Amino acid sequence: MPQPFTLVDDQKDHPRLEEKHNKNYQRTLLLGKAAIDKLRKENKEITYKSIAEETKNLDSEKKGIHSNSVKRNADLYNYYKSHSNTYARKKALEERKKSYKIKSKPKGFEHIKPDRNKADVRKKLNRLTKKELIEHIIEAEDI
């Protein structure tokens, strides 16, 4: 996540760059927050795209901000995370997916030799249809 603008040695002669960057950073932050607040008030989904569209309506220049600006502006991204219902749903889904992953080696596979020729096994499994593979996995899990 990009941090607020800092000058490197070769840019110290260009204070206008820092000034312009800070001005754009603040503009993005203010427009983004205003858009998020308006979307929340109207009970609409808060997504990158909806924020970008709403900022065009709020901006006096009618330029708005790009949807990626929400991610690139650290302060706005934190505000988005704390107010977005779609972000919360995505995080909850990721947590559920993590809990489904197999955490340890399944029992019942002791008969499989660790030094077997995996190329032969792969060749054998490639010949099976999708249904046969599913049945093969179900049978393996029942062991």
Query: What characteristic shape results from the CA principal axes?
Result: elongated
Radius of gyration: 26 Å
Supply the number of helical segments: 7
First-to-last CA distance:
47 Å
Helical fraction equals 55-70%
Low-confidence stretches: none
Strand pairing plus helix content: what structural class? mainly alpha
User: What is the N-to-C succession of helices and strands?
Assistant: HHHHHHH
Percentage beta strand = under 5%
Number of domain modules: 2
Structure description:
Residues 1-21 are annotated as: Disordered. Residues 9-21 have a biased composition (Basic and acidic residues). This protein has 143 residues and is an all-alpha fold. It has two domains: 9-100; 102-143. It contains seven helices and no strands. It has helices at 15-41, 48-58, 67-72, 74-83, 85-100, 118-126, 130-142. Helix 1 (15-41) runs parallel beside helix 4 (74-83). The longest helix is centred in the first third of the chain and has 27 residues, at 15-41. The chain is elongated. The two termini are 47 Å apart.
How would you sum up this structure in a few lines?
This protein is mainly α and 143 residues long. It is built from seven helices and no strands. The chain has two domains: 92 residues; 42 residues.
Q: What features would you highlight for this structure?
A:
143 residues, mainly alpha, 2 domains, 64% helix, 7 helices
Topology:
Elements: H1 15-41, H2 48-58, H3 67-72, H4 74-83, H5 85-100, H6 118-126, H7 130-142
Helix pairs in contact: 1-2, 1-4
